[in-house]
Amino acid sequence: MINMIYILILLPFIAGLLIFAIPKSIRKITGFFALLITLVDLGFAVALFNKNIIYSVPWAGFGIDFSLRIDHFSSFIILAVASFCFLITLYSTTFMKDKNNSGQFFAYLLISLAMTNGAVIADNLVVMLFFWEGLLVTLFAMILIGSKAAFKTAVKALVLVGISDLCLMIGIGLTGHLSGTLTMSSINLSLDSTGGVAFIFLMIGAISKAGSMPFHSWIPDAAVDADLPFMALFPAALEKLLGIYFLARISLEMFKLSPASWISTLMMIIGSITIIFAVMMALIQKDYKRLLSYHAISQVGYMILGIGTAVPIGIVGGLFHMINHAMYKSGLFLTGGAIERQVGTTDLKKLGGLGSKMPITFGVFIVAAASISGVPPFNGFFSKELIYDGALERGLIFYIIAVAGSFFTAASFLKLGHSVYIGKIKDEYRSVKEAPVTMLVPMIVIALICILFGVYNPLPLNNLIQPILGERLLEGHNYSGFPSNIMIVVITVVVLIAAFLNHLYGVRKSGSGLGAADHIHHAPVLSYIYDKAEKRYFDPYNIGLKIAGFISKIFFKVDKAINWFYDVFIVKITYFFTGVIKKLHNGHYAMYLSWSLIGTVIIIIFIFIVLR
Amino acid sequence: MRNEILLFCIVFVPVIGSFILPLIGSFSKQLRNLLALVFVLTSVVFSFILLPEIISGGTVTINYPLISGISFTLHADMLAVFMAIASSLIGSVIVLYSFGYISHYENQNEYYMMVVLFLGSMMGLVFSGNLIFLFLFWEITTIACWRLIGFFRGKIQVLRADKAFLITVFGALIMLVGFVMLYSQTGSFDLLVIKNALKGNPVSNIVVMLILFGILSKSATLPFHSWLPDAGVAPSPVTALLHAAVLVKIGVYVFARLFISTLTLDVMWHTVVPVIAGLSMLVSAGAAFIETDLKRILAYSTISQISFIFLGLATGNEIGIAGSLLYILMHGLAKGGLFLCAGIVEQNTGTKDITKLGGLIKTMPVTAIAFLFCAFSVMGIPPFGGFFSKYMVITGAINNGQLAIALTFFAGAILTILYLLRVFTMVFLGDLKISSVKEKSATMVSSVAVLAILSLAGGIFIKYPSDFVVLTVQQMLGIIK
């Protein structure tokens, strides 16, 4: 068993390094090699599912033991990670075939898989941070190889995620200090003053990995610059799984988050802000991938809101939403990739009427878009209803924001679907064909699971999600089946219909599917804010860089002043004194004689007055 | 007896050997280069041979009484051996790199003599069990460094060399006054005697302050740091040597040796030193973010990272000190690599101005990757070695209850990411501004590759250095004898 855990980390890591050694002439096989490795990883993940293993060897001293833990929760995440990696690698074998950097792409993908596995099964906080922060390196590299201009985004991602990881480091230091151990399974802290600070730092690390505000702004940029499978795998799936996994670990196990705590309220506020601002930005996007990326941010808000409610129904909803989101969002990105590969652009202005040319892609899109919009009976509907219920229990305002988020989500997907798949097709795209089968299979599988997890939701809820909370937290509830609160369901349906009517209104007003949201975009006040947002006035990265630049300039001046002290001031002082002394030695007898006289007088005075 | 001879050789093979190098250089350059490497490697290999004896808890001491109260003492314990291995290992990579770098310049005899003398006296300093000899070796390094900074003999180089010399000697002389006061209190310059005489009582604050002058000036910490960026006019391997491996670590080492192993400090210093270090870190990190000269940026970065080491040592708790010792090793490897990469860039493009560089990852891929690896290590990103040291240092501050200080250094860590990425982006990414540049000299490129790989290995195989450091700290704090 122990060897199996090690294989989860070592196999993809070594395989990833091996890819660099594959000679150029047979580079074509790298995709299949990577596929094989992810398949093996999937096999191990299945074999380890629901096992309970704890393993520990000494490592770096000071409580930093290399300890790993497989339990229900971590084995579930490992399984999900392995499935996504396998499906998206399958997709990429075709998608990346003609790209220059495909070898590097697969290498980084496998190394990231190793790191993710390590972070999930680590039972020691520092070991977890080791793998977790190690993902920075592959993140940077994967964005960097995306395109020529991608380096700016890569730097942005590294800085933002790096800062949040440093927060995590501080949090881990504090947690270790307070609890006296770094082993996650034996930490049990309260959320009093210092404990609260520790929790906040850990939380920042967790939700930033998941892509929440304010450390989100690299994701939309990466959507344009990085390779599409990267987007489908990382911001859409793996990072969400990892971030929310750790958030759940800290708030359910290591700290006991209760609804009475102010931190619970804080988390709900962060969640709500993320939901609403990101979805508003998504609404006005004119690029397939960029639009999806804002939703990847917005949806994470629902998960944070759900877990932040600290009531069982909200937590179950948040965790269910995590796995649902990973599916439909990577599915959506994969449809975007199919369009990009077959048509050659993801610019919504150029697209249209592709539904008849690419019916399977369109079908997958409909399923995934309906899921993300919370249309019954797809999976997203059920997880959102649970979150709504939890939010309503904690405060009407959170519920209203969550529902408003759903309205805009539905509106933006109606706009997206309309402008890509319906409407008039451009003449140059008349010969577009459906995507190849290796790309379609992962998309179809994901779409089918989206339906399965919705129609038959007791399967995931009873077997995957609810065991995470355990009997104690669930208090005997079972949230599978159709939502119990019919009022919330009715409101959801009304909101969805309203979104549809709004779409029809927007289409009639602007005359196209693409312009369906223009009336919101150009509404008074909103248009002003949108304008500033598009110019990145609110991008925390830009703001942060300005602050850092300003502070640095001050310090630079301080340093220059110190330099001046040594280079100019001390030199001048020295010259001044030596200059004075020099003047006293001008070579005239009279001068030297008078110095001797003055000296003699001083000695005489000294002898007579002092020594007498 | 065998161990005593080994210890003697670690110090005096390079010290005496350095004076032979110019003679040999006058008839064979190859032999001289080879011998320089052999002398430095002697220190590395012999230190490793001493290792088993030291790890098992033993120490090796050579003691020859000279005039009254002063004896020539070499004393090898875990801290000394750790420091000796860390600096001589990096030193030998630098000598290897020099084969390629310095081969185009005049006065190579002087160069190799000074470098080897420098490393030898560093060994002497590390193993000195006596304050007078510690001071003596300290000043030999100052003289060697003065010649090396002024190596190119231009007006500006000579001025900068003088500046470095004056500031460090000024500090050292004040430190000497501190040593003398210590002598008047305890009646001896011998570290063990001093330790036993004080019996764990805090040493007077004035002595600590005087000695700190020397330490801070040698380790280029605010307000005595300004010679270090200016020293960038030296040949690249020398700046790497000065900054990364050896020179700035001397101050840090003496801090550990005197203020942790030997003397007990007043509680006040656990706050004062981190505050000085914090200021130094912020000022230099800010300067590194604005500066456009490649070597000056790296020099400021060194000043800023040295502060982390001081922080860890000043916390006085186990994890903080262990973090600092790891930091000395990891930062030495990584920063040495960064400077040597900068040297390759400078030599092949003819400029150090990062605004004139760009896109070099296409023409110099190995250098670029090595630079990135080393930068990741300095930033503290796993799986590179710098991660553990940064974590431990900051945790050391947290364990002392100094959350505000920990957060200041957290801000410093953010700035580190910013300025190193800025350099990397401007030099290696973007549009290629200087075309027809090639990576030259296999020894240079392989040296940086070695350092980059060591930085990576230091993180993945953290168990080995960490195990050693844990024992070292226990010995330093007297937890085990």
List keywords for this structure.
heterodimer, A: mainly alpha, two-stranded antiparallel sheet, 22 helices, 2 strands, 75% helix, elongated, B: 481 residues, mainly alpha, 76% helix, 2% strand
Low-confidence stretches of chain A: none
- What sequence of helices (H) and strands (E) makes up the elements of chain B? HHEEHHHHHHHHHHHHHHHHHH
Q: How many strands in all of chain A?
A: 2
Largest beta-sheet characterization of chain A: 2 strands, antiparallel
What's the multimeric state?
heterodimer
Strand order of the largest sheet of chain B: 1-2
Overall geometric form of chain A: elongated
Order of strands in the sheet with the most strands of chain A? 1-2
- The N- to C-terminal Cα distance of chain A equals 97 Å
Percent of residues of chain B in helical segments?
A: over 70%
What summary fits the major beta sheet of chain B?
A: 2 strands, antiparallel
Structural class, from secondary structure content of chain B?
mainly alpha
Label the structural class of chain A: mainly alpha
Low-confidence stretches of chain B: none
Mind sketching the topology for me?
The complex is a heterodimer of chains A (612) and B (481).
Chain A: H1 2-21, H2 30-48, E1 53-61, E2 64-70, H3 72-95, H4 102-121, H5 125-144, H6 151-179, H7 193-210, H8 218-225, H9 228-254, H10 262-283, H11 288-308, H12 312-343, H13 359-373, H14 379-394, H15 396-421, H16 437-455, H17 458-474, H18 486-510, H19 518-521, H20 526-534, H21 540-584, H22 589-610
Antiparallel strand pairs in A: 1-2
Chain B: H1 2-25, H2 29-55, E1 60-65, E2 71-76, H3 78-101, H4 108-127, H5 131-149, H6 155-186, H7 191-198, H8 205-218, H9 227-230, H10 236-245, H11 247-262, H12 269-290, H13 294-315, H14 318-349, H15 360-363, H16 365-379, H17 386-399, H18 403-428, H19 442-460, H20 463-476
Antiparallel strand pairs in B: 1-2
